[in-house]
Design brief:
The complex is a heterodimer of chains A (about 240) and B (about 260). Chain A is built from 5 helices and 10 strands; from the N terminus they run ααβββββαβββββαα. Chain A is of the alpha+beta class and about 240 residues long. Chain A has a 5-stranded mixed sheet with strand order 2-3-9-6-5, with no helix packed on it. Chain A has a 3-stranded antiparallel sheet with strand order 1-10-4, with no helix packed on it. Chain A has a two-stranded antiparallel sheet with strand order 7-8. In chain A, a hairpin with a 2-residue loop joins β7 and β8. The longest helix of chain A is centred in the first third of the chain and has 23 residues. The relative contact order of chain A is 0.18. In chain B, the strands form 4 sheets. Chain B has a 4-stranded antiparallel sheet, with no helix packed on it. A 4-stranded mixed sheet of chain B has the order 3-10-9-6, with no helix packed on it. Chain B has a two-stranded antiparallel ribbon with strand order 1-12. In chain B, α1 packs across α4. In chain B, about 30% of the residues are buried. By secondary structure, chain B is an alpha+beta fold. The chains are: A alpha+beta (about 240), B alpha+beta (about 260).
Amino acid sequence: MTYRYVVYDLQKNFNATFDDADFTFNQILYWVMVVANRLRVQQTMATNSDLFTSTFDDVPVLTDAKGRKYIDLPEQVMDLPNNAGIVYITYNEDTCNCSGPAFAQVWFQGVNLGNVQHLYLDTYTTPSSTRPYFYRVGHKVDGSGVNRLYLLGIECAPVKSVEIAIKCSLDPKKLCNIDEDIPLPDEMVQDLVMQVLQLGKFIMLMPKEVTNEGEDEAVLNTQMYSNRAVNPPQLQPLQQQQAE
Amino acid sequence: MNANDFVSVDHLLAEVTATVNDTDFKKGFNKGWYISRIQDALQELSFDTFWLTVIHDFETPENCQIPMPPNVFNLREIYAYQGELCNPRSTQVIYWKRLFDNRYSGDGYTARVKDDGSNGADIFQPNQRVYTNNMQGFYGPKYYYNIAEGDGIIMLSKECRGFPFIRMKFNAMGVPIGDVPIVPRFFERAVVDYVEEKFYNAMKSRDIRLYRPLWQDTFTKLTDPRDGSWNKAKKRIKSMDTSEKNSMEEYISSMYHK
């Protein structure tokens, strides 16, 4: 199912309901990607499949001003518990092909930045080139925005690049072709459409809610709310009389 | 029982991580943590069963002091010998002497009971010299040792200098910390259960309602006195080989009939 197909369908539905609203194609496309990102995380948590995993063969290892080795993540990564969005990082050389791929032999294990010192307490967990680790710095380094993975254990090893596999998020800025397939299972497109419609409906409701009509007894029109427990439908006049 | 068959750490990890649902090592414990627990298990089994023995040979030092090597406990046997390291000859058993202490120089020593007559004025302790000296010279157990408490130094009597080499047999605490653990197949079940128990024990502090029942199950599986894997491991390693048992029975049954 392509972006073009789904977005045009949504735009048509919005215009049918809110005929005077101005929903642009790009706006709906943005909503589609926002919702798709959430659905992809939910799907990953539910199935733990590698449907959304991407591999990068040759990610260069760089050194920062303090001599610490790191890589820049080529894509934004899903923020899953215990760095599960990073499937593996391994040396970029299959040294023992007969025993399987490199990532099955030596892989960088994830650790939280605050727990790095804990690794050095036990001989069996101390980082080394055969027992390497990574930790993530995803916000800023010295005030500059970064999306890095720092590598531990290869301080003295001449590693120029690594191979990584990550579970990526969708970046609206990087969508170049709306005829690409939406990276979601087909059975989830219905959820995607429903949630984008809900989002649009909520956004259209907001301006009306905050309108100051200048009357103390003004009753807000809350019929659009789907939560009937909070906003029960108004009673019919006959029922009101009986109730009184 | 004796065997020369071992299981690899990866073999154990494959089972443990599958059982605790951590095959991708993303539950907060890295691979090294699991290996460290395997080492712990073997260490505990070593203390409980004395299953692992190691031999160390030393050149006899001039001061008669030999520091106990790392990663060992429980001195089992100690000999002095002549010849070469790979070919001991003229061996002599070295005995333990209670309260013997010759630290520092190796020549003079203190002890409640002395064999050199230097406590001749003691009215309570007999002068052992009369028992260990006769016209032909010394006889009796002049080769002895004691271990300095706290220091772990094996102190040899000065007569041991007559032998160029000392051989000692210890129990070991598994492999040295940092080495890859070597696990006899007798212990596979016990080690797997031990590591799982430690995993769930650690996870209790993260989510006690989820992990306490799992820990309880594993703890029982490990420590049950009747059917627990730990007790089974102890019984297995302490039992005799059938050949040993047969020889022992034959020896005992015939010893009073010859």
